[in-house]
């Protein structure tokens, strides 16, 4: 059965890093008969320049008809003066909501070869491999009512609503438990159930859903403690699941434990594990076109795609091991370079991963 991947390279370094991910995926496609087909479309500033909108209908149609979406990055100074409705970032928000991508997976992996890139002590972070599952389409970022008003005494007041229905919690719970099953079978649900009714319900539903996954060990933690534990002893966690806003904050904290933004992939999934896969970094306009961007976050994003959408764990493992081998061979793009290493370009890093795949 043919599997279709919509490829949206986007802006800035997007086309450079996506080309390397496709290079890696194309090699495996042939080597393992994965039956993948790729189709390109424009998004973000590039789409605005061509069609006057960051998310053209044909791009959206392609994504809806595809089994997975690979995205580079969008945005750049050229489009900053545009009205909000047509800014490149709108293209991303549009796809997320149109495809119902409610489950955001943000792994934080620290490769032992890059342990010095972290601001934390090596013994605290070395070997770190955790996954944060963030609810992406509900909670306080979307809850109604929201707004600002003038109170009777003339003072300005602003308000948002943190609201979750049982079904919204249930679906992110299933998503997180399934991910935990594919990893070390440990799930920590993060809430503020001692203060907020909405997360009291979160905790109740997580516990109920947990009964359907007896092989996964579920624990609960308050968000303030979780933030503290993430920088104190992050290796205690395997998979964490949390609300939209808590996840926004905790996933950035976790990402920075690793210290290298060019290494971190992400996935956003719907209820059927269809997903959009992208590096967590942006379009890096400061280095675009120079051939020096690190493509590993995007290459690792396609490994996630193989694991979570296509259930090709062996292929995903091979990519992750090949990245490890490339790092062992001391090749480094400029952002992760240190003395004694071999500085390589974006495409040379892609080649190094393919060569490692050939040897594996
Ligand atoms: P950024 O992530 O693009 O860059 C931050 C810094 O990290 C820069 O110095 C950049 O050179 C470096 N960097 C990022 N990715 C790298 C890589 N793969 N290899 C080497 N170095 C890398 O964040 P920013 O500068 O705040 O934003 C730039 C543009 O990207 C803005 O228009 C922003 O809106 C957009 N953005 C897009 C996304 C997305 O598409 N998902 C996410 C964040 C920001």
Name the CATH homologous superfamily of the largest domain. Answer: Isopropylmalate Dehydrogenase
Most strands sheet: 10 strands, mixed
CATH domain fold name of the largest domain: Isopropylmalate Dehydrogenase
CATH architecture of the largest domain, by name, is: 3-Layer(aba) Sandwich
Bound molecules: nicotinamide-adenine-dinucleotide
Number of helices: 12
Total beta strands: 14
Taken from the alpha-carbon principal axes, the silhouette is globular
How would you portray this structure in words?
The protein is α/β, with parallel strands linked by helices. The chain has 2 domains: 1-102 and 270-360, Isopropylmalate Dehydrogenase (3-Layer(aba) Sandwich), CATH 3.40.718.10; 121-258, 3-Layer(aba) Sandwich (Isopropylmalate Dehydrogenase). It is 41% helix and 20% strand. The chain has 12 helices and 14 strands. It has helices spanning 14-31, 44-51, 57-65, 88-98, 122-125, 166-182, 197-210, 223-232, 244-258, 296-308, 313-328, 346-359; strands spanning 3-10, 36-40, 68-73, 103-109, 129-135, 147-150, 156-159, 186-191, 217-222, 239-242, 265-269, 275-279, 331-332, 342-343. Helix 1 (14-31) links the parallel strand 1 and strand 2 (36-40). 46% of the residues are buried. It binds nicotinamide-adenine-dinucleotide. Nicotinamide-adenine-dinucleotide binds at residues 13, 17, 73-76, 89, 92, 261-262, 278, 281-287, 293-294, 297, 335.
């Amino acid at each position: 059965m043919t599997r279709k991947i919509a490829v949206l390279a986007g802006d800035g370094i997007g086309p450079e890093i996506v080309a390397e991910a496709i290079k890696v995926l194309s090699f495996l496609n042939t080597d393992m008969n994965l039956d993948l087909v790729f189709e390109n479309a424009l998004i973000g500033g590039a789409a605005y320049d061509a069609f006057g909108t960051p998310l053209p209908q044909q791009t959206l149609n392609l994504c809806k008809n595809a089994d997975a979406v690979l995205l580079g990055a969008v945005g750049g100074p050229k489009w900053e003066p545009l009205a909000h409705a047509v800014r490149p970032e709108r293209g991303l928000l549009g796809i997320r909501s149109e495809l119902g991508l409610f489950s955001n997976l943000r792994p934080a992996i620290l490769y032992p070869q890059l342990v010095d890139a972290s601001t934390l002590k090596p013994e605290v972070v070395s070997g770190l491999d955790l996954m944060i599952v963030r609810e992406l389409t509900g909670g306080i970022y979307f809850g109604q009512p929201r707004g600002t008003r003038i109170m009777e005494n003339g003072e300005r007041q602003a308000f948002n609503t943190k609201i979750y229905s049982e079904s919204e919690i249930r679906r992110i719970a299933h998503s997180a438990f399934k991910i935990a099953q594919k990893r070390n079978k440990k799930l920590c649900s993060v809430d503020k159930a001692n203060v907020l009714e909405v997360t009291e319900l979160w905790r109740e539903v997580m516990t109920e859903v947990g009964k359907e996954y007896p092989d996964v060990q579920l624990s609960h933690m308050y968000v303030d403690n979780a933030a503290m534990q993430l920088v104190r002893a992050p290796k205690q966690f395997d998979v964490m699941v949390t609300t939209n806003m808590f996840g926004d904050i905790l996933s950035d904290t976790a990402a920075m434990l690793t210290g290298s933004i060019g290494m971190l992939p992400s996935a956003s999934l719907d209820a059927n594990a269809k997903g959009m896969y992208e590096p967590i970094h942006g379009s890096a306009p400061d280095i675009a076109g120079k051939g020096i961007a690190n493509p590993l976050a995007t290459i690792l994003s396609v490994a996630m795609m193989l694991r979570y959408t296509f259930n090709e764990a062996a292929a995903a493992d091979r990519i992750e091991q090949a990245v490890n081998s490339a790092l062992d061979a001391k090749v480094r793009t400029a952002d992760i370079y240190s003395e004694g290493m071999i500085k390589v370009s974006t495409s040379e890093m892609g080649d190094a991963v393919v060569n490692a795949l050939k040897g594996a």
